[in-house]
Every structure is written in structure tokens, then in C-alpha cells.
Here is the input.
Amino acid sequence: MNRKLLMFLFIMLLLAGCYDRIELEQQSYVVAMGIDKTDRKGVYAFTYQIANPEVGSAAGQGGADEAPAEIVTVDGADILSATHTANSFVTKKITLDHTKVIVVSEELARDEDFIRVIQSASRSPQIRRGVQLVVSREDASDFINNNKPLMEQRPHKYYQFMLDRATQTGIIPEATLHRFFQITEGDADLFLAIYATTEQSDQTENKKTEDQYIAGEIPQIGGSPTQFMGSAVFKEGQMIDTFTGEETRFAQILDNTLEMETLFATIPDPLMPEYQIAYNYSQKEDPSINIQYHKEKPTTIDVQIPYQAEILAVPSLIKYSQNKEYQKVLRETLTKRLNEKTAELVRKSQEEYRSDPFYWSLYVRKYFKDVKDYEEADWHKKIYPNAKITVNYKMEKLEFGKMINDSNLDEVRD
Here is the structure.
């Protein structure tokens, strides 16, 4: 009898772990959250985009007129208290476990109090550290409401596909909450957040290269109004500037803590500058970053970047693939342009920001015995702004795609 009673009590203890279980259909899943300033100090407007899981799924039973998401906005002092307030009129329990992005208005991101409101995201066990931080040029609530993708009804899939692809091509940075807090609390480098907008800029102009834009400047006709391009630059937890897609790409090339796949780019044809040559840039190995710290004189930073290029389009129809001299000119032009563009970004970071977006402070820490010694050396004010930096690209391979010959214009138009 005692044995049966003990077994019964043991089973009851195991079942007790399910007492607080909430069924899936009883929860509201937030896929995007927006944060804006209000007229009151310490009070912010929080916008929640809550996904309707039945819309767009093969097993969904929702009606044809059902919206893919519900969007609500409430005021609050922090993320968690605002979430509880929203639950007073949202039918199901709001959960943040599946949140993909946190969108912050540029106005709030440039405010010195931004760090005060975003820090609550690090305390909640619901919000994952892999959530991407997006800065919108307009209010975050306007961005979320205006973002209406045409090809993907499910909002969580839209954010996942859009951000994954743009990050792989380098036009936006990897901007997780974990990385934001890691860099900000390290107090030595610049953090790059994703820059986006749903509003077209009045200064839109056609530029010759595809990545010299920031969000809102890309000329487009039709499609979704939402543009993800470039990055918002943060120093010590506050936004200070923006990078174009091109500058964002170079920042990621120089940062060994990030992974970037092949990127598509164009350069002026060295023999016929009125045309653009399109190529794929790729790296088979990380850049070599060598930092020599000197206490009494400028620190030296030497960066060597091996890369490969595959030529995809030559509108001038010049036969680079068959002429060794032309290939030499093309190689030199590609490498020179990469060196010059990178030097511009490095110089800008030293003179204007006095800090780097490349996470190079990791390589200088080995010269200090403890954190206090490292902080006294001051990467922001002393080491990086005065460092002597050299960056050299070295082309390992130049390829010309599947075809050796381009069309012969003289034969086509005889």
C-alpha cells in the first residue's frame, strides 16, 4: 500500500510541471515591436504587430478577409509594462518569444535616453538576444503600419526572408540585441543597426552604383514602399550618423566577427568609364588584422584582405577575358577602388567618430593586464583616433563567368 502511495505521489510531482501551461491558440505572437518618443518624459509609445498564424498557412482555417496581423499601440515606461497594458484589450496573452525585429524611430535613437528604454529588452527572458534592431526614419508606428509586403502575407516570414537576404549581401548589418549590448557596454566600438523606411526621400536621385544609397533614396516604381538599405551608426548607445549600403559593406568586410557571403557590386569600366562592370566579390578567408600597441606613440594597425572577383557583366563588350593587358588593368582598377573606398571609411571613422565600426578593439586587449588598465588606455579618445592604419586588398583570383567571349558588336551590326 505504501509503495502504491509513493508511486502516486511521484507521478503527481511530475504532472505538476504543467500547471502553468498555456495552449498555443491562447497566445498572441508579436513579430515586430516599435518604440517612439512621446511628449512626456520617460513615457514611450510601443507598437505591437501581432501575427495571425492562420493566414497564409496551408492548415489555416481563417477566412479570406482576415488580416495577416493586428497592430496596436500603447504608452508605457518600458517594454514589459507596456506589454501588460496592451493585454488589457488584446484577447489573447501577448508573448514576445517570436519577435523578429524591434523598430526604433530615428528621433528616439538619436536621443540620449534611448539606452534607458531599450535596456529592458535585456532583462525579459521572452525577448531573444537574436532580435534585430531596426532604425526607421519615420515613427516606428508609421513604419509598421505602412509596411505591407505584396508577395508574403505572413509578417514573420517577411521579416525573416528580407533581413536574411539583405544581411548576406552586406547592404544592411547584422544588428542583434546581443551585439548592441555587447558593443555598447564594451565602450570601445561603434554599433551598426539596420536603417529602413517606408517613406521616399525628396532627395532621391539616380546614382551609378547600386549600393550608394540609404533607405528612402532608392528610386523605385511599384512594389512595397519599404526599403532596407544602409545602417544607423551608434556610439555609446546613441545614434550619431548613417552609413550607405556601400559603407556598410566595407564595415562588414573589415569585421571578422561577422559572416558575409558574396556581394554584388559595380565599378566604372577602366577602358570605357561611361559603362559599369558588374562583379561578385567574395572572401575565402578572413582578413588578417595585426595591431601593434604603443603607449608613447601611435598604435599601428595593418589589415590584409585576400579576395576573389567574378566578372558578371561587361556592357562595353571589351574582351577582358582574352587580353592579358586588359586583365591587368582590370585587376589594378578593382583593387585600387577597394583600397580607396576603405581608406575613406577608415579616415571618416577616425576623424569624425573617433571610434571604429569594425570591432578592432578585440585585437588590442591582449596588451593589457586587466580591464582597468585597458579602460585607462582609452580606445575611443587615444588609441584608435591616433592610430596609423594601412589596409591592403590582394586579389587571389579573377574569373569571367561561364562565357569566354561577349557578343561582337561589329558582326551583329554589319
Observations:
- The longest strand covers residues 300-313.
- The chain has two domains: 26-249, 254-414.
- The domain at 254-414 is CATH 3.30.300.210 (GMP Synthetase; Chain A, domain 3).
- The mean pLDDT is 85.
